[in-house]
Amino acid sequence: MTSEVYKVGVIGYGRSAKVFHIPIIKVVPQFILYAVVQRHPKPEDDVEKDYPGIKSYRSTEDMVSDDAVDVVVVTTTPETHFSITKLALEAGKHVIVEKPFTPTSKEADELITIARSNNRHISVYQNRRWDADFLTLSNLIRNGTLGRIVEFETHFDRHRPQGPTAEWKTGLRRGGGAVYDLGTHLIDQVVVAFGMPKRVTAFIGSQVANNVTGYEDSFTVLLHYDGMIATAKAAVISPEIEQLRYWVRGENGSYKKFHIDCQEDQLKGGRKADEPGFGLEPEERSGTLTTIKGGQISREVCPNVEPMTYRTFYSQFAKALNDNGEVPVKAEEAASVIRLIELARLSSYEGKTLEVRT
């Protein structure tokens, strides 16, 4: 059966659109990059120059009024996600929303209701579900190599003592701060692997000296499960040559991995997502698997599985549009992550562990 081809309109033309969305859209045959909303193009930053022939809009309202647009991709700052997504859904568009889904779970739930009432698909771009090291780790957990997991750590640490430079990452904004920016990825990975936790304990704040912006650049979120604790952590004071990514310990073994998945750097460097070798990390960046065999502890290199890459998100979304499966990330799942972030912020503010109510 031949798949339909859908015209995509991207709202926003910043780093998210340029690095994480447009390059992927361009290599998925079921999609055509049709339009982009760029409010203030500049001579050195103009989508019409970068993609000749594309329709360039100055307002979201104008683009969602274009009947030719089938799918809208929202890549604007988090505090705008709710209003823009609502507008697109009510205009009859299918929507992909960059993470974080919305600043509040109440807004997320409302968008889910609007999507259902308009019979539209909505999905949230939790692309790091398709990081090769996370897929590798998921296989180790699923096939029982590590045994019963007792501790799971997922990190996004960097050494940036000067603080953030992007305008939207400074100050106090709805849906802002590292726990919304990076925590959505890390917490989502934990929930994908283990489901919703029973309790949350969190420490959210700033490690930057003399932080006058109020931006919360760091967090440690403890997710409590029966017999296991998961730690989602991001730091900006971490002077290491190799930054820890995962450290997972079970009764039968452990997995430790350094370095962030390479797809982001490859996309920033101009690699195309359909090129041979895209998503493949150098062997020296492989994780380490430690296991117990015959009472003896041994260690070996644990190469990543064959990468599925971020293309998988858009390919699965296209299948969902053709009634051939579900969207790659359900909005309900993304809403659950936002609920955990709300609890984490409250836990940090109140200085206590909070129950997760389902």
Short description:
The chain has helices spanning 15-25, 47-50, 60-64, 81-90, 105-117, 132-142, 178-181, 183-194, 263-268, 311-321, 331-350, and strands at 6-11, 31-37, 55-57, 71-74, 94-98, 122-125, 149-155, 199-205, 218-225, 228-234, 244-250, 253-258, 287-293, 296-302, 354-355. By secondary structure, it is an alpha/beta fold. Helix 4 (81-90) packs parallel to helix 5 (105-117), helix 5 (105-117) runs antiparallel to helix 11 (331-350) and helix 8 crosses helix 11 (331-350).
Mean pLDDT: 95
Number of strands: 15
Give the low-pLDDT segments. Answer: none
Distance between the termini: 41 Å
The Cα radius of gyration reads 21 Å
Please describe the biggest sheet, giving its number of strands, its sense, and whether it closes into a barrel: 9 strands, mixed
Strand order of the largest sheet: 14-13-12-11-7-10-9-8-15
Describe the structure.
With 358 residues, the protein is α/β, with parallel strands linked by helices. 42% of the residues are buried. The mean pLDDT is 95. The protein is globular and about 65 Å long. It starts with 5 loop residues before the first strand and ends with a strand. The chain is built from 11 helices and 15 strands. The strands form 2 sheets. A 9-stranded mixed sheet has the order 14-13-12-11-7-10-9-8-15. Helix 4 (81-90) links the parallel strand 4 and strand 5.
Please outline the helices and strands.
Elements: E1 6-11, H1 15-25, E2 31-37, H2 47-50, E3 55-57, H3 60-64, E4 71-74, H4 81-90, E5 94-98, H5 105-117, E6 122-125, H6 132-142, E7 149-155, H7 178-181, H8 183-194, E8 199-205, E9 218-225, E10 228-234, E11 244-250, E12 253-258, H9 263-268, E13 287-293, E14 296-302, H10 311-321, H11 331-350, E15 354-355
Parallel strand pairs: 1-2, 1-4, 2-3, 4-5, 5-6, 7-10
Antiparallel strand pairs: 7-11, 8-9, 8-15, 9-10, 11-12, 12-13, 13-14
Helix pairs in contact: 4-5, 5-11, 8-11
